[in-house]
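INFO batch 0412 | record 1 of 1 | parsing
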Amino acid sequence: METEQIISLIDKIDFFLEFTQEEKKVVAGLKSNIQKFQPNEQIIKQAEADFSVFIILRGSVAITKNEHPDLVLNRLKPGDVFGEMSLLAKRLRSTNVIAEGETIALKIDGEYFEKLDLAVQNKFKDKFIEILIKRLDDMNESISKLLR
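INFO prediction complete | emitting tokens
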């Protein structure tokens, strides 16, 4: 995939709205980190020690746990992120992530993340915080509905 194609995918993703074109070019330059997954391919395995974060550019994934592998906890689509907790907290993977169809994602490993310009790192971290807050709000709402 060429840099221009990657930028065109990134431009469609809300996650990158606050990024400048120059910062998007830096992200798009990570060609080796643009990964394509086939349907039903396991992207992340629960309890694995891996500190990469993924941003879905095309396709979708299902989130499951080993305890109930047939129960889909969540489905993520383009613009959604997974793996951010492992990247930020340096902890083992808490879920499984499986491609539902052909999926393209930007993978940023922890080592590379630490080498990014501090301003770019902070933009990523700000987005991760927004995402985690939204997930917590959604979870609280779900629990509240269950208790009614």
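INFO post-check: The two ends are 49 Å apart (CA to CA).
INFO record closed
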